[in-house]
Structure to design on (198 residues):
């Protein structure tokens, strides 16, 4: 606990700090709730994307196994550009994936089987889902970090600053009350001495 002065100026300062803390705390609590809600939504989206990716990959692998051919489709699919932007949620800039552009890689139709076109299309969809998943995980990380900091601030105000300011105000009020009582007693004693002396 910081050293405080037992003066009326210090009392006013402590009361002003208490008002500021109590005015700022609801904003922090609201921000914390908003961040928690956003994190839950992002986590649900992450679970959905993971499930979607697993289903797509399983479908692609079934296809490859049905035709019994081992073809490396990855060399036929390359990302040309990922269009990323950002948005602000509760004071946090988070990335958003707007779209993905793929390079057109030519291949010999005589070498590759007929199903390779659909395989490439499916692989592009899987890569797009992977990119979305990576962006969602980055969003969750950024929001989680901001939630951690906001929670620390809420706890600081609720458990340290506000009780400390209230305790300081109480102590200063007691001290000033004692000083005022002592002044009244001294005044009465002086008056009684003056009355006896006269």
């Amino acid at each position: 606990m910081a050293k405080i002065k037992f003066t009326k100026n210090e009392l006013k300062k402590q009361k002003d700090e208490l008002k500021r803390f109590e005015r700022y705390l609801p904003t922090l609590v609201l921000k914390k709730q908003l961040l928690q809600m956003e994190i839950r939504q992002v986590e649900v989206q992450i679970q959905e994307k993971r499930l979607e990716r697993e289903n797509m990959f399983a479908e692609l692998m079934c296809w490859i196994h049905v035709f019994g051919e081992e073809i490396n489709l990855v060399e036929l699919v390359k990302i040309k550009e990922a269009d990323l932007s950002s948005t602000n949620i509760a004071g946090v800039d988070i990335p958003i994936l707007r779209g993905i552009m793929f390079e057109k890689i030519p291949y010999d139709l005589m070498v590759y089987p007929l199903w390779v076109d659909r395989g490439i299309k499916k692989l592009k969809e899987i890569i797009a889902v992977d990119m979305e998943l990576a962006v969602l995980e980055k969003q969750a990380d950024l929001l989680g970090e901001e939630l951690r900091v906001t929670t620390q601030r809420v706890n600081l105000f609720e458990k340290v600053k506000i009780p400390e300011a209230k305790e300081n105000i109480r102590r200063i009020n007691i001290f000033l009350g004692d000083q005022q009582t002592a002044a009244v007693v001294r005044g009465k004693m002086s008056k009684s001495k003056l009355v006896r002396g006269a």
